[in-house]
Amino acid sequence: MIRNTIAILFTLCCLNVQAQDSDRQARFEANLQETRARLALTPEQEEALKPILRSQFEAQAETLNKYGLEPGMAESGERPSFFELRKMRKEMQGIMESHEKQIAGVLSKDQMTTYEELREERRKAMRERIQSQR
Asked: What is the pLDDT of residue 81?
């Protein structure tokens, strides 16, 4: 009986993780599609950017999860404090800065300007989501 219960709980946990991974993958693909369209990427640029953007996306998602702010991931009812949000912001800036040089090496100057605009739009949308959770 206990073994069956443990097996069921383990299976449910695995399914939950798979669903979260699927959601994360869908969000990444949506972001990539928007980036592709807005920047008019060539196939070569897309191929070069995809691993960079995936790395950045995953690092940002892990940071959001760490602070309980990734969609569907906040398990406790607690919200991050002002100081935790500031710490998170610094971590997110570090992630963006570490990837920015790699991205700039793939994009033209015009594309990089458009990418910065897109990034700012996404940052504003994230702030709004965070504020709506508070």
From this structure: 84
